[in-house]
Design a protein that fits this description.
The chain is of the alpha/beta class and 438 residues long. 40% of the residues lie in helices and 23% in strands. Helix 2 packs parallel to helix 6, helix 3 packs across helix 4 and helix 7 packs antiparallel against helix 9.
């Protein structure tokens, strides 16, 4: 299996001004391609530091994926550093200049002369097109030497995430598939909300041990746990072992029966699709509509719906009823119930969901009310107390959460739990299936 280093470049990555999301994306893409990422390095926009990182990769790696430092300003020095590492001069590519000029012309803006610098590449470089930005990428073979060892293939991409992602998909990945032997790595993803990572591991590890014993391919099964409150992803991957044996798709699918049983009721699905995508898909396929009534989450549940392409086929809208007066006027919540039980209560959550469904004329409605903090909590209802309700024509589901963390985290977790309660309702009604891979 090909080994790779990921090299991300930019002072902003090390100062904390920018979160290094490119590293996570490139690591994930490599895993899917069957490329083993052995090391990830971040360096400043300094030629000597970039050259040193490339020289180190050339000693052991087959591939070095680079992002950042391809801009037009004086601190963008990746091309210069790669040329120095290769021992060749920079050469201006006139076709790349024309492509950059075309982008400025498209937006009817004059092109500053400094942008021509983005068309300077190490001699012999393979230019990688960038149809959505002014920074073309390039690929080179860092030659072997006594100091560097065998050398490696280097692909340099922009630091702008959307440009890097498109270039990786359209330019870099096809070249990797052409120039390297990339084994197909099968994987299966189980998605759960409502149980902790360690509790899940206690239940799954005996099943994995038994699976390894029964099947040669599963002997090299690797299980990843990815926890991000309130969700845990369990990724079963058919990694190759010393004997080269790999789990097939059928062997990984044989895990489903035991895993699904062990993960219920937290499990909400198998496969790539996340919870919002699954909820929207199930509602649209069944031609059902949904509305939201939110207090403590401040519109976050509605945002989870509208982030999904095609959500207009099921999501009609929502009401943010932060003040009790709006709960009464917009959702017909009883003032007496508010006075007797408080805004954060089962009776009010249910009334909000039922009122939203009635007022907005939908098949389903989701309501949230709670105390996100940092103030406002009491001994009876501490910060993190959140009540969620889901109403439909057959009744109303309800759940109380006791969450921990800062305000934004509580709001985020509550919003996802709201969708999980709706998803459970859809499954109960026969409108969705946990075992579905989509």
């Amino acid at each position: 299996m090909a080994q790779a280093q990921i090299l991300t470049i930019g002072d902003e990555l090390l100062s904390g001004d920018t979160v290094n999301s490119n590293l996570a994306f490139l690591g994930e893409r490599c895993r899917r391609l069957g490329v083993t990422v052995v090391r990830a390095v971040s360096v400043r926009d300094r030629v000597e530091e970039i050259v040193a990182a490339l020289a180190d990769a050339a000693r052991w790696a087959d591939i070095c994926l680079v992002s950042g430092g391809l801009g037009p300003t004086s601190d963008d020095r990746t091309a210069e550093a790669v040329a120095e590492a290769c021992g060749v001069p920079l050469v201006r590519n006139l076709e790349a200049v024309a492509a950059i000029e075309a982008i400025f012309a498209k937006f009817r803006r004059p092109m500053p002369d400094i942008n021509r610098k983005q068309a300077d590449f190490p001699t012999g470089a393979d230019v990688l097109d960038n149809p959505i930005g002014t920074a073309p990428g390039f690929a080179v073979h860092l030659p072997p030497s006594a100091e560097r060892g065998r050398g490696c293939w280097v692909a340099c991409m922009p630091g702008v995430p959307r440009e890097m992602k498109r270039m990786m998909a359209e330019q870099v990945e096809p070249r990797l598939g052409r120039d390297f032997v990339l084994p197909q790595v099968e994987r299966r993803i189980y998605r759960a909300i409502g149980r902790g990572e360690s509790a899940i591991a206690v239940d799954l590890e005996p099943l994995v041990a038994e699976a390894r014993r029964r099947s040669p391919g599963l002997a090299n099964l690797y299980l990843h746990y990815r926890a991000a409150a309130p969700q845990v992803l369990i990724i079963a991957e058919g990694a190759g072992g010393p004997d080269g044996a790999r789990a097939t798709a059928e062997e990984l699918a044989s895990l489903d029966e035991g895993f699904v049983a062990a993960l219920r009721p937290a499990l909400y699905g198998l496969g790539e699709a996340d919870l919002p995508v699954r909820v929207v898909g199930a509602l649209c396929r069944s031609e059902k509509t949904v509305a939201t009534a939110e207090s403590c989450t401040g519109g976050r549940v509605g945002a989870l719906f509208t982030e999904v392409a095609g959500a207009s086929g099921c999501f009609v809208g929502g009401v943010i009823t932060y003040d009790n007066r709006i709960k009464i006027e917009a959702l017909d919540v009883s003032g007496a119930d508010l006075a007797a039980h408080g805004a954060v209560s089962e009776v009010v959550a249910r009334a909000m969901a039922e009122g939203a469904r009635r007022r907005l004329g939908t098949d389903f409605a989701v309501a949230t009310t709670g105390i996100a903090g940092p103030g406002g909590g009491t001994e009876e209802k501490p910060v993190g107390t959140v009540d969620i309700a889901v109403a439909d024509a057959e009744g109303c589901s309800y759940k109380r959460l006791s969450l921990h963390g800062e305000r934004r985290l509580i709001q985020h977790v509550a919003a996802l739990w709201a969708l999980k309660l709706l998803w459970d309702r859809l499954v109960e009604r026969g409108l969705a299936r946990v075992e579905s891979l989509d």
